[in-house]
Amino acid sequence: MKRLCLILFIICIKNVLSFEKVLTINIDPRKEDCFYQHIKEGENVDLEYQVIDGGHGDLDITFTISEPMGRILHVDIKKPENTHHFQAQQTGDYKFCFDNTFSSYNTKTVFFELLVENDYDSDESDFNLAEGVSAEEVYDLKVEDIKEIVNKVKGHLSKARHLQDLFKSFEARDRNMAEENYFKVNTLSMVQLIIMVAVGVVQVIMVRSLFDDKSRVHNVWKHLDTKR
């Protein structure tokens, strides 16, 4: 029983070993923010970002991915969202940069998710760590079946969490867009109201000036009529 638990523990550690980071960050106008993550050669990287709030401007951002030696892997110019998947060819600190230098006034809010996974091959050497476990015992325990189940559970959990984070980002973006439209509607309505009040006041003054000889506007009308 102890050997079975040890084998299951080794399988879980070897297959579920991964790193995930989820951030929501604000990129100020005329600024560029970069983040670094240490990634080993051969690891699989899944990355997704989405601009969920653009202030009073467009929902866009410039995004770059650079290798430890400085070579640029991917560049997105003023995009609202995108996903990237690649396998690391070098070991070191990879750089992920969000560039908002093209915006003069608007702060961008970006949802950012980074998933780094190890891709281990399945072979009998994986069980050499469990000393005293013979090949016959491993066969009897149907380890391959157990590994398949663990991998399926891990995959379903990762997908569920990814979808939850994605739905949260969609909700945040839609809410920010609704608030921005609400602000624009209120601003335009206020401007229209001020113009209507101003026009109404001017009309009242002009009409009154036609019947009031002592008003300054009436004197202006008389002066203009004299010049004619």
UniProtKB/TrEMBL annotation:
Listed SMART domains: EMP24_GP25L
Q: Name one GO cellular component term.
A: endomembrane system
Report the leader peptide range. Answer: 1-18
The primary site where this protein sits is membrane
Segments forming domain GOLD:
32-116
Q: Which family does it belong to?
A: Belongs to the EMP24/GP25L family.
> Which protein are we looking at?
GOLD domain-containing protein
| Organism of this sequence | Aquatica leii
